[in-house]
Design brief:
Residues 58-70 have a biased composition (Polar residues). By secondary structure, this protein is of the alpha/beta class. It contains ten helices and nine strands. The strands form three sheets. Strands 2-1-3-6-7 form a five-stranded parallel beta sheet, with helices on both faces. Helix 4 crosses helix 8, helix 5 packs parallel to helix 6 and helix 6 (185-203) crosses helix 7.
């Protein structure tokens, strides 16, 4: 046993020396910690520096998987519908009610509906609508207004005629055997003549004519053409004695651009035009009529129902019908200023009451007579010395 150990001892020492030379040098502080056991079997696992450790926080509460069904939400209540303004209740029209005839295309039909609403409570005015929505002054083969209007005037016998036409006239016109494009020189000349002939059919009969201009459209090209036609209407209608009703500003914004929503006749925001940018809503039709209504009432008179109201003493209440305490305070019967003897009296109300003349003020005495009233006793300007009273 001992001889075997002595024989293997040189080999072990040699192996240790070879191993020591093969291992690289390490810092001093590390060498102090290294042992032969470490050199033979490897170093223990080193710890990472504190700053390089990624700390994972413990998952305290496991996240719940999201459900495909969203949690129930409280139902959203739809806003309460805005109540439409009350419509005027139509009254029964008089047998001799004055008639306003409205003719033209779809714009005229909208104007007629608006005027019907405007005069719904007036028994002395009735609106008569006679028109064709797709008509105009260009396609006489579709609807010939120059031939049909005289028949309408003879049938209706209107007090006023309202015209709104031209929105369908942006198309080729047949003149004799030729076809002229819109806004060509020949087209404009022929259109001038047709507008003049159409308006003259009314004014020659001494009937007031109200020609309503076109409103702006959503299409810029349509709006530009509408301005051109409005110029033709104004010039030719006024030349034969009619009146042109300009509605352009009522359907554009401050910059002159087309608007779908704007101010209604009462100044409140409302939708005036349809989604097509051409037609009119109920609010838009009423606004159309608002412009025409002012002209129409001037021809009808300040009071359109003046035939139903007597402005004489027959409408005044009798004094005998008044309460006794009120009757005692009225010294005379009210009389008309324009005709004092209408009710048998000649004096105005209150003429029988005699009032005492007001006393002259110190200012009047000073200005008229140069007299100055004496100051009351005790006032600072009362400087007179009163004579001493004898005992």
């Amino acid at each position: 046993m001992t001889s075997r150990w002595h024989r293997s001892r040189p080999r072990l020492v040699t192996a240790c020396l070879i191993l020591a030379l093969a291992v690289p040098a390490v810092p001093a502080h590390a060498q102090e910690r290294r042992t032969l056991f470490d050199m033979l079997f490897g170093e223990p696992r080193r710890q990472r520096p504190e700053g390089s450790i990624i700390r994972v926080q413990p998952n305290r509460q496991r996240a719940r998987p999201q459900s495909s069904i969203s949690p129930a939400r409280p139902p959203v209540r739809a806003p309460a519908p805005v109540a439409a303004p009350p419509q005027a209740e139509a009254v029964e029209k008089m047998e001799n009610a004055r008639k306003i005839l409205v003719v033209g295309d779809f714009g005229a039909m909208g104007t007629g509906q608006g005027l019907t609403t405007a005069f719904a409570e007036d028994p002395s005015v009735v609106i008569v609508e006679k028109g064709s929505p797709s008509s105009g002054l260009v396609r006489q083969d579709h609807y010939d207004w120059l031939a049909e209007l005289p028949k309408m005037l003879d049938e209706v016998k209107p007090h006023i005629v309202v015209v709104m036409i031209g929105a369908n006239d942006r198309q080729t016109m047949t003149i004799g055997s030729a076809k002229e494009r819109f806004r060509s020189e020949a087209w404009l000349k022929e259109y001038d003549e047709r507008v003049t002939r159409f308006a003259s059919l009314v004014t020659n009969r001494k009937i007031p004519l109200l020609w309503v201009g076109l409103a702006a459209f959503e299409s810029p090209s349509l709006s530009a053409d509408a301005l051109t036609l409005n110029g033709i209407f104004r010039q030719n209608v006024e030349a034969v004695g009619g009146e042109f009703v300009d509605i352009w500003d009522g359907f554009v914004d401050e910059g002159g651009q087309f608007v779908i929503t704007g101010s209604d006749m009462n100044g409140q925001p409302a939708r005036l035009r349809g989604s097509d940018g051409v037609s009119f809503t109920d609010a838009g039709k009423r606004k159309l009529a608002f412009y025409v209504e002012k002209f129409a009432k001037r021809h009808l008179g300040d009071l359109s129902i003046s035939d139903l109201i007597r402005l004489d003493s027959g409408d005044l209440p009798l004094l005998s019908s008044l309460p006794p305490e009120v009757e005692a305070k009225i010294p005379s019967q009210p009389i008309s200023l324009s005709d004092p003897e209408l009710d048998g009296g000649k004096e105005l109300l209150g003429a029988a009451i005699t009032k005492p003349l007001p006393a002259e003020t110190p200012q009047n005495l000073l200005l008229t007579r140069g007299e100055l009233a004496e100051a009351p006793v005790g006032r600072i300007d009362h400087y007179r010395i009163e004579p001493a009273k004898s005992d």
